[in-house]
Write a structure and sequence with these properties.
It is a single chain. This protein is mainly alpha-helical. The chain contains 8 helices and no strands. Helix 3 packs across helix 8 and helix 4 crosses helix 5 (65-77).
């Protein structure tokens, strides 16, 4: 058995999209949202698995705290959580390869045409 998280490389399973016009008109809102997500990433990086499990437990009422702690420990061991939200080109390419191979995406899109790192880079500082 193998861990897909370890064997696949960093896959950005969660990303956010918005129209260019929205980004231009709502820069402060987008930055505040990105800053909040970055603070969440920092919280995870700075706390122990037991603490994270306790915080997330209300989202998983059917799962006992011991199991949640084990899951979080596994995520830590696999280095699942990045330290920032910057959507790097290699991760974008890997995601597109997965989507093309699965038939979800017909053709790839150039990274520069679809991704902006501006807000994540600012939040990471």
């Amino acid at each position: 058995m193998a861990s897909l998280g370890e064997d696949s490389g960093y896959v950005p399973y969660t990303s956010f999209s918005a129209k260019k016009s929205f980004l231009e008109k709502n820069r402060d809102t987008v930055q505040a949202f990105t800053n909040a997500l970055q603070r969440g990433m920092e919280y995870v990086r700075e706390h122990k698995p037991e603490e994270i499990a306790k915080v997330i437990s209300p989202q998983f009422p059917e799962t006992d705290i011991s199991t949640l702690t084990t899951i979080v420990e596994r995520y830590y061991a696999q280095d699942t959580w990045k330290s920032d939200l910057i959507f790097q080109e290699d991760a974008f390419e890997l995601l597109q390869n997965i989507l093309v191979d699965s038939g979800v995406l017909e053709k790839k899109v150039p990274y520069e045409d679809l991704v902006t790192k501006e807000f994540a880079e600012k939040a990471a500082k």
